[in-house]
Specification:
By secondary structure, this protein is of the alpha/beta class. Helix content is about 30%, strand content about 35%. The protein contains eight helices and eleven strands. Strand 1 (about 45-50), helix 4 and strand 2 form a beta-alpha-beta unit. It is globular, with a radius of gyration of 17 Å. The N and C termini lie far apart (about 35 Å).
Length: about 250
């Protein structure tokens, strides 16, 4: 949630993200699908948190997985219904307080946990995810380390333009554990005029080296990896990959 209590990724930014920024999900999907092959083989259930507009969801469903896709943004969930119509269930879930359904695999891309308000909330979400993982289950999600923000100190403003949208972003790192993006969105309306919107995203950076031990206390064996497979992740963004022994 933003400081004013509204969810991140409201309608215009959700649409822009869907149209212009699907490359991360597309690049991570092959590695995640390989990790999930044992789950698909036994017809297990995959829970995706932070599904966004369904970009990874679509890959999972097309590969034959049973998927429950969840996100905190209603606008993103509306897009998921269009993007991945074969999804078994699409529902709103806001970590760390909403109950996490049990599943044979729990996955995510797009550093969804870093959108939580503080490190304690991230820890609570990690515990909830671990406890929801069934015996023999697999976890695979990405998480931003403190390094992610440190490498972006002094980043210049950037802009992106599509056929019917534009995005201008200002970056800042007010403290070592906060990475902030102030975004102005522009979307062409049906009458040809442009609508402007603004969102501020505050991502909480964490010491990811703590994560394997935290998950181990909940019975999940996990490690940090530079990627899920052959894709190249940005510096400071790590894949958390693990399993609960059968």
């Amino acid at each position: 949630m933003t400081d004013d209590g509204r969810p991140y990724y409201r309608q215009d930014l959700a649409q822009i993200h869907h149209l212009g920024f699907g490359f991360h999900a597309d690049s991570c999907a092959p590695g995640i699908l390989r990790l999930l092959e044992p789950v698909r083989g036994r017809g297990g259930l995959v829970l995706e948190f932070g599904c966004g507009s369904g970009l990874l969801t679509r890959h999972l469903v097309d590969a034959g997985h049973r998927v429950v896709a969840t996100d905190a943004s209603p606008a993103m969930l509306d897009l998921t219904r269009e993007t991945a119509p074969g999804t078994e269930e699409i529902r709103r879930l806001t970590l760390p307080d909403d109950p996490v359904p049990s599943a044979d695999a729990i996955v995510s891309v797009g550093h969804a946990l870093n959108y939580l308000p503080d490190a304690e909330s991230i820890d609570r979400a990690l515990v909830a995810i671990a406890r929801a993982l069934r015996p023999g289950g697999v976890i695979a999600f990405d998480l931003c380390d403190l390094e992610y923000a440190a490498r972006r100190v002094g980043d210049t403003d950037r802009g992106w333009v599509g056929d019917d949208w534009a995005l201008v972003t200002r970056f800042s790192v007010p403290t070592p554990d906060r990475f902030v993006r102030d975004m102005a969105t522009f979307v062409r309306t049906d009458d040809g005029t442009w609508r402007r919107g603004d969102e501020r995203h505050v991502n909480v950076m964490v010491d990811t080296s703590r994560v394997p031990a935290l998950l181990a206390r909940e019975g999940v064996e996990a490690e940090l990896r530079p990627s899920f497979g052959d894709e190249e992740m940005p510096p400071g963004l790590f894949a958390v990959v693990g399993r609960r022994p059968a």
